Amino acid sequence: MEKRVRVRFAPSPTGGLHMGGVRTALFNYLFAKKHGGDFILRIEDTDQTRFVEGAEEYIINALKWCGIEPNEGVGFGDGKHKPYRQSERKELGIYKKYADKLIASGHAYYAFDTSEELDEMRKRLEAAKVVAPQYNVVTRQNMRNSLTLSAEEVQKELSEGKPYVVRLKVPRNEEIRFNDIIRGWVVVNSAQVDDKVLLKSDGMPTYHLAHIVDDIEMEISHVVRGEEWLPSAPAHILIYRYLGLEESMPKLAHLPLILNPDGNGKISKRESRFPVFPLSWKDPREAEPFIGYKEAGYFPEAFVNILALLGWNPGDNQEIFSVEEISKIFEFERVHKSGAKFDPEKAKWFNQQYLKNKTNAELAALFKPTLIEKGYNLDEIFVQEYCRLVKEKAQFVHEFWQHGYFILEAPTSYDEKVMTKKWNADVKVLFIKLLDKLKTVSKWDAHELHEVFNAAALELGKLDMQVMRVLVTGVAGGPQLFDVMALIGKEKVLERLDEAFKKLS
Ligand code: GLU
Fold first, then answer.
1. Rounded (to 5) percent helix, strand, coil in the chain
2. Domain 416-503: which topology?
3. Mean pLDDT of all residues in the chain?
């Protein structure tokens, strides 16, 4: 029988959630949804030295904002496998039990080496020109561990309470192979694998042991994680093997890196000129907060759409997808191996597509706070019409002001380039005559204004639309002029024209 699909997102609370992390969460979510399975949030906090206050809460809020909520885990669901924080699981002795089992079967051992002794070993190996000095099947023979010490010596160290770690006993020459869903077959010889620490001297498990134990106990069917974990996967296979679970272990899928726009190197938060966090993140160790996608004005649907296409493709040219839609067609077979290039300009384009699809009422609700901040408490219909006019030009709601402020604020100056070229006494006379005609307009809407303008041009001679625009708004560009005039309103337009004629000789 096929296992029920159960996947997990297992971040460490070591800082804000980076977009690569959210992408991992998203792919887990999509896969679970596609197969009607479970999506679990597990907090991997065994490295106490890297713990950052507030990070866990941030992770939960970020997933909620993205609309990709786990149905089980820290902060979600009813907790069938609780606790979901590794520090709490450690208290229950869950990891120790597995470590003891590995020791008992001869696949793990105690190592008593002090940090000075480990340093010495590294220096010795470097002096001997060993490329990657590590604690392994060869070097462990010269170290102080339960493989080299006598049983009495080991007992003595343990009973005296000397600090020790538990290491995986990697065999000398064994083939390790696994079929990664994205990468295909990976084959490694165990000689390449180091004797990874499983339990640290403070009794905490390392990631290597803890995630395997939890994946077993939480009945995880697929491990979907970033490519940075691929090099450790062979050691993980050995652990499953020694626990007698290699056959039934979760399937592995390693997601490609997200690369910066030049395609060289991973996106880093310090160097990037675009947000790399979903929500703004104030790192307690940094002076300035990092601005997130939310605060930069991205819609969550757009952000998630962008992430989905970082490494996955639908097989055709469609680019705009809801999470719901992707979850119906998502497959790891369509995730590529090579790094996924992130294009910040394209990200803005995505937001624009979502913006265009919002109703004017939705946009009005989002834009109103800006208007109120600027001192305008306007009625709903007016704000909706404003949004309709400016939304074609904008990529973000916060740009609505710059694309239409002149609808609310009378000009204080007039576009110089246009006026120097096109304004003179004759033109002025023409526009004064047009003003008289506008005064008689009774139905002040865009259609009527267009008619009046055309009729006046026929009667009076050519009337330059751009000059008209500058007289009314002060600027040379903007949404459809007659729409703008209609929204400004008759009284105000007439006033503005009067004012312009006074100021412009
Ligand atoms: N705690 C690991 C991380 O922070 C999780 C890796 C995994 O998903 O197994 O990336």
1. 45, 10, 40
2. Arc Repressor Mutant, subunit A (1.10.10)
3. 95
For the chain, the structural domain boundaries read 94-212, 358-408, 416-503
Q: Distances in Å between the alpha carbon of 208 and those of 47, 99, 101, 135?
A: 12, 11, 15, 16
pLDDT tens digits for 316-373?
999 999 999 999 999 999 999 999 999 999 999 999 999 999 999 999 999 999 999 9
d(CA 224, CA 332): 10
Cis peptide before 70 (omega within 30 of 0): no
Q: How far is it, in rounded angstroms, from Cα 277 to Cα 280?
A: 6
In this structure, the strands spanning 197-199 and 6-9 are unpaired
Give the distance, in angstroms, between the CA of residue 393 and the centroid of all CA atoms in the same chain: 26
pLDDT < 70: residue spans in the chain: 1
- pLDDT the model gives residue 131: 86
Ligand 1: atom nearest CA of 207 is 1
Quick check: is 162 catalytic? no
Cβ neighbours for 453, distance < 8 A, ≥ 6 positions apart: 434, 463, 465, 468, 482
pLDDT at 33: 97
Separation CA 285–CA 132 (nearest Å): 32
Per-residue burial over 316-326, b = 16 or more CB atoms within 10 Å of its CB, e = otherwise:
eeeeebebeeb
Pocket of ligand 1 (CB under 6 A): 10-12, 44, 207, 211, 223, 225, 229
Residue from 225, 252, 257, 258 whose mutation best tests the ligand 1 pocket (most atoms within 8 A of CB) = 225
pLDDT tens sequence across 111-140: 999 999 999 999 999 999 998 899 999 999
Amino acid symbol at 395: Q
Is the domain 94-212 a CATH 3.90.800.10 member? yes
Candidate CATH numbers 1.10.8, 1.20.1530, 3.30.420, 1.20.1070; the one for domain 358-408: 1.10.8
- Characterize the bridge pairing of strands 184-189 and 175-180: antiparallel
Closest approach atom of ligand 1 to CA 215: 9
Max CA pair span of the chain: 113
Q: Which of 96, 101, 251, 269 is catalytic?
A: 269
**pLDDT the model gives residue 221:** 98
Gap from CA of 419 to ligand 1 centroid (Å): 62
Ligand 1: atom nearest CA of 9 is 8
pLDDT at 263: 72
